[in-house]
Amino acid sequence: MNVLVYLIPMALGLGLIGLFGFLWALRSGQYSDVEGAALRVLSDDDIEK
Amino acid sequence: MSEALDLSLFARPSGDGTLGMDLAVEGIACGACIARIESAVKRLPGVTEARLNFTNRRLHVDWTDGAIAPAQILQTLEDAGYHGYPFAPLRAEQEEAAEARRLTRCLAVAGFAAMNIMLLSVSVWSGNGTDITPETRDFFHWASALIALPAAAYAGRPFFASAWRALHLRALNMDVPISLGVILALGMSVVETAHHARDAYYDSAIMLLFFLLVGRALDHAMRRKTRAVAGNLAALKAETAHRFMGDELVSVPVAALRAGDRLLVRPGERVPADGSVLGGVSELDESLITGETARRKVEAGATIYAGSMNYSGALTMRVTAADRATLLDEIERLLEKAASAKSHTMRLADRAARFYAPMVHATAALTLVGWLLAGASVHDAVVTAIAVLIITCPCALALAIPAVQVVASGALFRAGIILNAGDAIERLGEADTVIFDKTGTLTLPEPRVVNAAAIDPELLQKASCLALSSRHPLAVALARETATRTPFDGATEEPGQGVRAMIGGAEARLGSAEFCGMTDTPLIPAQASGESTICFSHAGRCASIAISQKLRLDAVEAVSALRTLGLELHILSGDRNDAVAPIAHALGITQWLGELKPAEKIAFIETLKAQGRRVLMVGDGLNDAPALATAHVSLSPIAAADVTQAQADAVFLGERLAPVLDAIVVARRARALMQENLWFAAIYNAIAVPVAIASAVTPLIAALAMSGSSIMVTLNALRGRGGRS
User: Fold this and answer.
1) Is B437 noted as a catalytic residue in this protein?
2) What contacts B238, CB < 8 A, 6 or more positions away?
3) What pLDDT is recorded for position B148?
4) What would the CATH number be for the domain defined by B416-445+552-668?
């Protein structure tokens, strides 16, 4: 049972990393144009011809 | 027209020597447009960044100061096949964007906390049934508390703040019982955990917050989406004025005009600001302001108002009130009065809260007293009372209305209706009387050819093609009849007379009767029925084309459908009686009044309100703005004046009247769903509360009941999708 004392905080820590990742993405405007992002991936104007 | 366009008003310096500007862009159809627009703008010298937001159709451009003129960006867009216009973000929209980010952050935190606490809670529940040791259970409970307390303090702020505001005003809203439930549940859980108890309610409290935040965030997202579309339309509609800089003409946005500016107003343009005429003679159509369709002759010294259409000659004018103040003073004053009266109407959710909250609190208090009298310990009595508070915590009730609102505003959005006011759906659903304005509401905003059936189609086709070469409003109206966009070569316009061109070797003329040599032909009596006539002659054949306000294409069907819905219909117009009568007759509306001033329209609506009627006002003119604000709920077509649109609860797009019908049908269905949901929440409580009072609620039952009821009301709300069927 003692192993839970390590495992639960570790699980929480991993979850927190995810949460802060999301908050960072939100702050840096990753969610400001969701439709555009879905379409931009299809354009190949970044490929050198 | 080689006149310079001055857009410096919209360019904002960003600190490092570059200027930035936001543009609303029209004509974006697919994903390929993103690359096309961005690469075209980036090719301009000095442009450092061009980023198109596909979601809200806005383009942000940064460029080195002095490298290009902002007007070049517009020209580039125009060349690429798009129409762009500078967009100054409104403060209200920026505040809403910040609020949306705040809600999403709260939602993320609540979601994270709910998932992790649920993980721990499920372990405790199953452990309680088997062989969990008290030490492990205490550890799980403390771990839950560690997650729940900071998460609730962060994610609960929108509810706590709103509840605090309501209590401060000595009122009750839905957030009061929510906040109380969350705080008490967490407080009790901490005390129970400290006493090594079997049960704790961290999961219930946090799940409640999470579900409510989902509802609130969705509601907000839908409102922002419609707001962004409305903002873009307003920017694209914004007009420019021609200002004299010395002897030169410069195009400036109307927002940049100041009192004392000297302007040129060409025929076919709207007067951009209130002012007085310095030179020139013309006729003005003031129907947007007064509803009157007969034109007024103006010459030097006359006072003219923003929004009037200049018909025949070029005018020079001096701006007297740039903020459109003079005429609007009266209207604004009426508006304020009407708007403050309207804020007294109470929303369905608040009515429910006012009834519900005291009942919940009284039940909890009675439970406490009852168990104490029955001889239970203070601890057990308090635990049971708080369980009652948690189980009745109006999760379903608080979701019941927002969920329907989100779904219904989505359905309205697809039907071409953009909501301005948050509670417009409820009020639309209540309407039992519809009052229409005539000009621009029942009729199309622009005049059209009305006697097309009486004219040889070939002749009409040539006439409308020739009309493309003229800027005269009658010609512009005629030009809408043709499908082609290419004018005849070598067409020349003779100011105040008409246009002529050679078609197939013979001269064609379009303009006044004299200009076309038609003096002896009997003409349709103009003005009497609000019609104007334009003549066309070609190779010995001629036609006189009548142009007038025309009913919206589906007006007759829409009006009769409204009548079938059991609505009482009225027409209130500022126009002359003999112009209103034929329209009322065509639509079969017997209750109509013409020649009304704004104050008289208000008085009429007030009379109806005094009789207990819920009035929906549909109008577009400046003269309608106060009436829109007075009515129980209001709609405006998108072509309406800015002030009017800002005042309306909702704006509808397109040339048809059907959206009015859609709005009422969708709103009525939404209202029915809201009531169903409220009943559902009531029934849920009728079952859950006795269980809680009997002290039989475990955290597992609380969690199941709460999510179950939330999911039920959300599913019920989804039935409101789709338009009129």
Assistant:
1) yes
2) B85, B253, B254, B255
3) 95
4) 3.40.50.1000
Residue B634 CA to residue B43 CA, distance in Å, equals 46
pLDDT in tens, B13-46: 877 778 888 888 887 877 788 888 888 888 888 8
pLDDT digits (tens, 9 = 90+) for B332-359: 555 555 444 444 445 666 677 777 778 8
Q: Do A39 and B54 touch (CB under 8 A)?
A: yes
What ipTM was predicted for this assembly? Answer: 0.88
Task: Give me the helix-helix angle, B395-414 and B348-373, nearest 10°.
Answer: 170
Indicate the helix (H) or strand (E) that contains B315: strand B315-321
Helix (H) or strand (E) holding B25: strand B18-26
CB contact, 8 Å: B567 with chain A?
A: no
Q: Evaluate whether B304 touches B274 at the Cβ level (below 8 Å).
A: yes
- Radius of gyration in angstroms for the set of CA atoms belonging to chain A, rounded to a whole number: 19
Q: Nearest CA to B651 among B665, B663, B666?
A: B663
Selected catalytic residue, list B274, B285, B423, B437: B437
CB B50 within 8 A of CB B90: no
- With b meaning 16 or more CB within 10 Å and e meaning fewer, what string describes B646-661? bbbbbbbbeebbbbbb
- Report the SS3 class of residue B4: strand
d(C-alpha B442, C-alpha B483), whole Å:
25
Q: Is A16 on the interface with B (CB under 8 A)?
A: yes
* Type of residue at B288: L
CATH 3.30.70.100 fits B1-88, yes or no: yes
How many residues are given for chain B? 725
Give the helix/strand (H/E) hosting B277. strand B274-279
b/e for B701-722, b at 16 or more Cβ within 10 A?
bbbebbbebbebbbebbeebee
Which chain A residue has the Cα nearest residue B54?
Answer: A36
Q: How many CA atoms lie within 13 A of B139 on its CB side?
A: 16
Q: How far apart (Å, rounded) are the C-alpha atoms in residues B523 and B412?
A: 45
CATH 1.10.3470 is right for the domain spanning B91-238: no
Please check whether the domain covering B448-548 is classified as CATH 3.30.457.10.
no
End-to-end Cα, chain B, rounded Å? 49
Q: If you write DSSP's letter for every residue of B668-685 in order, what string do you get?
A: HHHHHHHHHHHHHHHHHH
Q: Does B130 touch chain A (CB under 8 A)?
A: no
CA distance B669 to B680: 16
CB atoms within 10 A of CB B64: 14
**Would you give the distance in Å from CA B665 to the centre of its chain?**
18
Using left for φ > 0, alpha for ψ between -120 and 50, and beta otherwise, residue B15 falls in left
Cα distance between residue A11 and residue B123, in whole Å: 15
CA atoms within 13 A on the CB side of B56: 27
Supply the Cα-derived Rg of chain B in whole angstroms. Answer: 32
- Inter-chain contact B55–A34, Cβ cutoff 8 Å? yes
Determine phi and psi for B522, rounding to 5 degrees. Answer: -65, 130
Assess B99–A contact: CB distance below 8 Å, yes or no. no
The string of pLDDT tens digits covering residues B52-65 is 888 888 888 888 88
The CA distance from B679 to B14, in Å, is 54
| Residue-range domain boundaries for chain B | 1-88, 91-238, 416-445+552-668, 448-548
* Crossing angle between the packed helical segments B699-718 and B91-129, to the nearest 10 degrees: 140
Dihedral sign computed on CA atoms, order B269, B272, B274, B276: negative
Residue B535: strand, helix, or coil? strand
In this predicted model, what pLDDT tens digit does every residue of B543-583 receive, in sequence order? 888 887 788 888 889 999 999 998 999 998 877 888 888 88
Residues of chain B with confidence (pLDDT) below 70: 1-5, 9, 88-92, 230, 233-239, 255, 287-293, 321-350, 393-396, 422, 483-487, 495-496, 519-531, 621-622, 640-647, 722-725
So what's the pLDDT on residue B712?
A: 84
